[in-house]
Amino acid sequence: MIEPYLRQFDAFAANGGSTSPAWLQQRRAAAIESFRRSGLPSTKDEDWRFTSVAPISRGDFSKSPEPSRVSLAELEPYLFGQPDWPRLVFVNGIFDPGLSTEHPRQTSLRRGLDTAPADLEPHIGRHGPTDTTPFSSLNLALAKDGAWIRIPAGVVEPAPIHLLFVTTPEASDAGVHSRSVIVVEAKARAQFVESYLTLRGAPRHLTNTVIEMSIGEGAWVEHSRIQRESEAGFHIGLTHVDQSADSHYRSFSLAMGASLARHDLQTRLNAPEAEALLYGLYLGNRDQLVDNHTSIFHDHPRCRSWEVYKGILDDRAHGVFNGKIFVTPLAQQTDAKQTNRALLLSDTARVDTKPQLEIFADDVKCTHGATVGQLDPMWAFYLRSRGIPADQAHRMMVAAFAAEVLDEIASEPVREALRGVVAQRLDRLG
Amino acid sequence: MALLVIKDLRAAIDEKEILKGINLTVDAGQVHAIMGPNGSGKSTLVQVIAGHPGYQVTSGEIWFKGQNLLDLEPEERAQAGVFLAFQYPVEIPGVTNAYFLRAAYNEQRKARGLEEVDPIDFLDLLEARLRLVEWGPEIMQRAVNSGFSGGEKKRNEILQMAVLEPTLALLDETDSGLDIDALRIVAQGVNALRRPDNAFVLVTHYQRLLNHIVPDVVHVLADGQIVRSGGKELALELEARGYDWTTERAATAGAAR
Fold first, then answer.
1. Is there a contact between A400 and B103 if contact means CB atoms under 8 Å apart?
2. Which of A192, B26, B80, B179 suits A297 as a labelling partner, its CA being 20 to 30 A distant?
3. Where on the phi/psi map is residue B66: left (φ > 0), alpha (ψ -120 to 50), or beta?
4. Do B75 and A378 touch (CB under 8 A)?
5. Crossing angle for the helix pair B180-193 and B119-132, nearest 10 degrees?
């Protein structure tokens, strides 16, 4: 059902949206038109073959969340023990300046549009194409707020910048659309941590979030995305990264929340000698569906991409991994490696994994590997033969499986905290 | 004093009987070598003693320190003092040698009612054991057996054995595929750990290990039975004459019965 969203857009366009700059109004209009034409995806769409969004389509998430406030004390457990890191907090999609450490180059999208919209014009809807997915079209049409961060050329950010997207029960049955723009200029260095979490309950809501990131020449970015939203809700996310020459982008993505979670991560290696390292861990139990779609566009020569995604699925959980690597004829001496490994802890868990390599250059090194398996009883016997009890041996094996990607998180406080979060979650599994 | 007494042990894998009535007594302070042709059941025997879940024990008893090991889980056997050095040690990426070995050490201590050892004290304890296998402390930060060469994996088994100090150590073809240096280190480890109150059972194809670790008793296993037992000179005879003569006698003995 898309009509409620079209009506929501009409109301928004007539109301708050009408004060937006003309270029943004045009982009929003084009986006809703794209959404109107595509509708919500179905499993007939190749990109959604294994991921039925019927639970979203059947519902109506066209209303906006009720206003809500959260306290710093409630956020504290999610700050990785680093309350001094600069942060931008959004509650049910709306910026909370009181909880945030704002400054002119690290603020909300809405403030940016109010004060210096021309700075945003080259970015909003310009990195991730409007129609990347029906949800990203809807996001562009409806998103009112998000983060707006610019790291000027040559600046080295001393601490990670933490973006917290918080939902509360006031978002029940509502759609939370946020859109963020991050620009890291040439030779700058920055770390971003992006958290999605739910406080005070388990509302059933639709989070539909987009990050557009642009990384300048020789710049260096580390980005951790941690999705631990309400297990009753739906989480749809798109991260699009444009990379310039000799830039370095390293991503870690943890997906463990929502009843249905889909994350599209796209990085475009737009100039020679750019490097993208993508690591991911997804955990599913009960009836969770966790979908990761990654796309790496090797458009230019001598770029390197390295990707490792791992999944641990229990009960009736369903994992989906789709890894696209496109290598254009120009992109000679591409070096690309993709690995996806999934561990199934029950007979009813399943994973659909699909590498998709499209290579149009001849002098390239591209490899991919996918494995799906259960814990090898020989591993357990080895540990038990040393005196380690069976249940602990099991936990050690599963934790070891996860550790290989958790170890790749660049920020030590995040890495340590997530080891704990994952270990605790895995204790509940199996 | 008998440390291990095995009575009429029969075991199968996938309905196929591999051990066909093993009787074996190992006294404290002894080293036993088990030799025999491929497929005779040598590895099966030590794996069954350690509790490998892939085998079904169809009859018999394995007495160790007053307990029938067949009533115990693999971890309980280890906690009771049994150690198996694997022929193919398992790789565990993501778990460091230090973490793994300390977890095993502490589980065994807990089971014996002793206090757990903290990481600092454990490092002290490790130092001497590492010297025994001629390794520096950096090996402890590597993931267990992950990317180790064949020789390194076997050395790591000896290191684990040295730390856990079992009463009964079972070595499953620990000498296979080792170069002479690695073989020397393995033998040095075993010899250093020999005590009047513990025992070793070595499964081996080759006499050469027995030049370095001198056995008290040598057994020949053929088709799931011990067909001959003797002193260390039996290993030399096997080296010179092969196994055929021992199995021929077994066949004859079987026919006569």
1. no
2. A192
3. left
4. no
5. 120
d(CA A213, CA A146): 13
Chain A residues with beta carbon closer than 8 angstroms to that of B79: 387
Query: What is the three-state SS of A63-90?
Result: ECCCCCCCCHHHHHHHCCCCCCCCEEEE
Q: Which residues pair with B188 in a beta bridge?
A: none
Identify which of A385, A388, A400 has the shortest CB distance to residue B94.
Answer: A400
User: Please, what is the Cα angle at A377 between A371 and A378, to 5 degrees?
Assistant: 95
Give the ipTM. Answer: 0.94
- Through-space distance between the first and last CA atoms of chain B, rounded to whole angstroms: 32
Confidence of residue A18 (pLDDT cuts 50, 70, 90): low
Q: What is the CA radius of gyration of chain A?
A: 21
| pLDDT tens for each residue of A255-283 | 999 999 999 999 999 999 999 999 999 99
Q: Quote the percentage of chain A above a pLDDT of 70.
A: 99
Give the domain ranges of chain B. 2-92+150-256
Instruction: Supply A348's token pair.
Output: 């009813």
Helix (H) or strand (E) holding A356: strand A350-359
- Name beta bridge partners: A196: A165, A227
Give the H or E element holding residue A277: strand A275-284
Closest Cβ–Cβ partner in A382, A389, A404 for B107: A389
Question: Which tokens belong to A344?
Answer: 């199934």
Interface contact B75-A400, CB threshold 8 A: no
Q: Provide the CB-side half-sphere exposure for A52 (13 A, CA).
A: 6
Q: Do B74 and A384 make contact, defined as CB atoms within 8 angstroms?
A: yes
Token output for A117: 């919209």
Q: Domain residue spans in chain A?
A: 3-375
Contact at CB, B78 and A389, closer than 8 angstroms: no
> What's the gap in Å between the CA of B75 and the closest CA on chain A?
4
Q: Are the C-beta atoms of B244 and B228 separated by less than 8 Å? A: no
* CA–CA separation, A423 and A402 (whole Å): 9
DSSP A170: G
What tens digit of pLDDT does each residue of A305-330 get? 999 999 999 999 999 999 999 999 99
| CATH number belonging to the domain at B2-92+150-256, selected among 3.10.620.30, 3.40.50.300, 3.30.1490.20, 3.40.50.1860 | 3.40.50.300
Question: In sequence order, what are the beta bridge partners of B17?
Answer: B12
Q: What is the 3-state secondary structure (H, E, C) of chain B?
A: CEEEEEEEEEEEECCEEEEEEEEEEEECCCEEEEECCCCCCHHHHHHHHHCCCCCEEEEEEEEECCEEHHHCCHHHHHHHCEEEECCCCCCEEEEEHHHHHHHHHHHHHHHCCCCCCCHHHHHHHHHHHHHHCCCCHHHHHCEECCCCCHHHHHHHHHHHHHHHCCCEEEEECCCCCCCHHHHHHHHHHHHHHCCCCCEEEEECCCCHHHHHCCCCEEEEEECCEEEEEECHHHHHHHHHHCCHHHHHHHHHHHHHC
Tokens (6 digits) for A313? 């699925």
Nearest CA in chain A to B95: A400
Cβ of B78 within 8 Å of Cβ of A378? The answer is no
Any chain B CB within 8 A of the CB of A389? yes
Query: For residue A16, what pLDDT is reported?
Result: 67
How far apart CA B139 and CA B96 sit, in angstroms, is 9
Compute the count of residue pairs across chains A and B with CB atoms less than 8 Å apart: 79
Collapse the DSSP code of A385 into the 3-class scheme (helix H, G, I; strand E, B; otherwise coil) and give the result. coil
The region of weakest confidence among A25-39, A232-246, A366-380, B214-228 is A366-380
B84 touching A, CB under 8 A? yes
Which residue type occupies A266? Q
Binary contact (A384, B79; C-beta < 8 A): no
DSSP annotation of A4 reads: H
